[in-house]
Design brief:
21% of the residues lie in helices and 18% in strands. The protein is α+β, with helices and mostly antiparallel strands and 109 residues long. It has one domain. The protein has a two-stranded parallel ribbon. Strand 1, helix 2 and strand 2 form a beta-alpha-beta unit.
Length: 109
């Protein structure tokens, strides 16, 4: 068992960021088993998802809109209305952007 303490800077290479190295290290025990890995909004990136897919680890995660690589796939400014949905597909990677409509209601009088 591996305990996550912080970013793994020992295994950083020009093609692998610290977060990519962290995810790869933590998922090493489940490679080639076919498990699904769900991530929060800090760890997902196209490079790490492609790398994990080659190891038969299927991934799903949310992404912050200000990640440096997100503008490469969706453009810098996305004009979206409430309830709009945009998708991009690249190989085995599918990205979905959704703008929710915020609704507030009150109960009682």
């Amino acid at each position: 068992m591996t305990v996550y303490l912080s970013k793994d800077r020992k295994h950083v290479t020009p093609s692998m960021t610290a977060t990519h190295a962290t995810v790869t290290g933590l998922a090493a025990r489940i490679r080639h088993v076919g498990h699904k890995l769900y991530m929060g909004n800090f760890f997902p990136s196209p490079a790490s998802f492609d790398d994990l897919h080659t190891k038969t680890i299927h991934c799903c995660g949310t992404v912050r809109p200000n990640r440096k690589w997100i503008t490469k796939y969706f453009g810098h400014k996305m004009k979206m209305k409430s309830c709009d949905l945009k998708t991009k597909v690249k190989g085995n990677l599918t990205a979905i952007v959704r703008k929710d409509k915020l609704a507030f209601s009150t109960v009682g009088g």
